[in-house]
Amino acid sequence: MSKPLRVGMIGYGFMGKAHSNAYVKVPYFYDLKHRPVLAALCARNKEKAETFAKNWGYESIETDWRKLIERKDIDLIDIGSPNNTHKEIALAAAKAGKMIVCEKPLAMTTAEAEEMTDAVEKAGVPNMVWFNYRRVPAISLAHQVVEEGRIGKPFHYRATYLQDWTIADDVPQGGATLWRLDADVAGSGVTGDLLAHSIDTAMWLNGPITDVTAATETFVKERVHQETGKKQPVTIDDACMFLAKFANGSIGTFESTRYARGRKNFNTFELNGANGSVHFNLEDPQYLDFFEYKAPGAAEKSPDHLTGWRRIHVTNFEHPYMDHWWVPGCTVGYEHTFINALADFIKGIETGKPTQPDFRNALQTQRVCDAVLASGKDGQWKKTGVSL
């Protein structure tokens, strides 16, 4: 008989939906000893919280996250609220001995992330950060390809994360729906929101980023704030590009913007090594592109006229996670990445092997983000202090 894992979810926005769906669906696709129970949904707006809770099947609601953490019937706290709330909630949850899963970025700053990491490690509570793209089967396959040595010595890593939803001058900032445009709530713009994903993936595949130099730009200098109705300066980065040096000697380029007309969630990476390359595009997520270099003399096994990029449809049972889903040829989507991540977290609880990325791992991504933002101010190379 499965053991209940009673969840207290904080937040009912985009991530609240994605996480709630994972809690509901994970026991149907993974054989686990724990079964999530939607015990409580917490949000400041009682009416909206009640509507969300009823829709997803939460047993109760709270409007104060402190009361949620105090409850004895809650095992796990899920922090799906804006970035400026992460630290205070995580510290309280750790002190109360709760398991914690937190949305990315982990914190507003490296200092906050360090304090949060120290707290969960001192408390000894299981923890995870929802860098869900690691759980895209094709990205997990790319990691497997690298671990198998098929890329060889790495030379280049390049990543892009492009969107277009903030181009209009009349898009406001702040409030419940557009807090990502408010630096006081989000901490940063595309660096923390989008590039954090790119950085996490890059270091998972290619190791620590040790040095960065960056340029950032805010294209619209003032926007109306949704809560005050007044125009005020925009202090987040609308766009960021940076160069990176990796500990293994390879170099990288990263670019992110919300001003790439026509790009909705264009998240790509390519890693080039001595023996091969991998390329991925989140807008075509069921495929991993792989190039394998054939040394001279290997033509009898792979004729020269057939040498080239190989497109792998990542839906077979031997591919990461796919044995839990459909028959080969049937694809999975965005929502499945959260289910896969949650399954890994629960398995980590059951085996005692911490799930990655945990707070300690996400702290390294925070350090890179802060170094990028610091370099964006003066254009100088910055040490990240990362050591994975």
What topology emerges from the helices and strands here?
Elements: E1 3-10, H1 14-29, E2 34-42, H2 46-56, E3 60-62, H3 65-70, E4 76-79, H4 86-95, E5 99-102, H5 110-123, E6 127-129, H6 137-147, E7 154-162, H7 183-186, H8 190-206, E8 209-217, E9 222-224, E10 231-233, E11 239-246, E12 251-257, E13 266-273, E14 276-281, E15 287-292, E16 310-313, H9 334-351, H10 359-378, E17 382-383
Parallel strand pairs: 1-2, 1-4, 2-3, 4-5, 5-6, 7-12
Antiparallel strand pairs: 7-13, 8-11, 8-17, 9-10, 11-12, 13-14, 14-15, 15-16
Helix pairs in contact: 1-9, 4-5, 5-10, 6-8, 8-10
Verbal overview:
There is one protein chain. By secondary structure, the chain is of the alpha/beta class. The chain has helices spanning 14-29, 46-56, 65-70, 86-95, 110-123, 137-147, 183-186, 190-206, 334-351, 359-378; strands at 3-10, 34-42, 60-62, 76-79, 99-102, 127-129, 154-162, 209-217, 222-224, 231-233, 239-246, 251-257, 266-273, 276-281, 287-292, 310-313, 382-383. It has a nine-stranded mixed sheet with strand order 16-15-14-13-7-12-11-8-17. A six-stranded parallel sheet has the order 3-2-1-4-5-6, with helices on both faces. Helix 1 links the parallel strand 1 and strand 2. Helix 1 crosses helix 9 (334-351) and helix 6 (137-147) runs parallel beside helix 8. The longest helix is centred in the last third of the chain and has 20 residues, at 359-378. The chain is globular. The chain starts with a strand and ends in a 5-residue tail after the last strand.
SS elements, strand count: 17
How are strands sequenced across the largest beta sheet? 16-15-14-13-7-12-11-8-17
Report the mean per-residue pLDDT as an integer: 96
The fraction of residues in strands falls at 15-25%
* Main sheet: strands, sense, barrel: 9 strands, mixed
DSSP summary: helix tally: 10
Provide the gyration radius in Å. Answer: 21 Å
Helix/strand/pairing category: alpha/beta
Q: Which shape, going by the Cα principal axes?
A: globular
Helix content: 25-40%
Order of helices and strands: EHEHEHEHEHEHEHHEEEEEEEEEHHE
Poorly predicted parts:
none
Distance between the termini: 38 Å
